[in-house]
Amino acid sequence: MTVEALPPTLAEIVDLFATSPPRVRLELLLEYSMQIPPLPARYAEHPERLEPVPECQSPLFVAAEVDDERRVHLFMDAPPEAPTTRGFAGIFHAGLDGLW
Fold it and tell me: How far from 16 is each of 38, 40, 69, 83, CA to CA, in Å?
């Protein structure tokens, strides 16, 4: 898949990482790890509604919803002590949440 085939916001993030030196990439990943929004109560109070991502070494849980306008919303949870996993989840959230 080429960057041109990605949704625009995700393509911008990919380009940012591709054009940044390695040290900056790590800092960017850590920034994205802090940008995952808190879970809404319907998931925070019922974590069993989230799907586990079993291939991940760190615990990662995801839910997706489609609203009345057919926009996709992503909800993710990963422990704060797993900043890399949270960073990748933050990238997916920033690049894909709200698309239709």
Answer: 25, 29, 30, 19
Angle between helix 22-33 and helix 83-96 axes, rounded to 10 deg: 80
How long, in residues, is the chain?
A: 100
For 9-48, letters b (16+ CB in 10 Å) and e give: ebeebbeeeeeeeeeeeeebbeebbeebeebeeebeeeee
* pTM strictly above 0.85: yes
Model pLDDT for residues 20-52, shown as the tens digit of each residue: 999 999 999 999 999 999 999 999 999 999 999
DSSP-derived secondary structure letter, 56: -
**Phi, psi (deg, nearest 5) at residue 65:** -135, 155
For residue 75, list its beta bridge partners. Answer: 63
Distance CA 87, CA 36 (A): 8
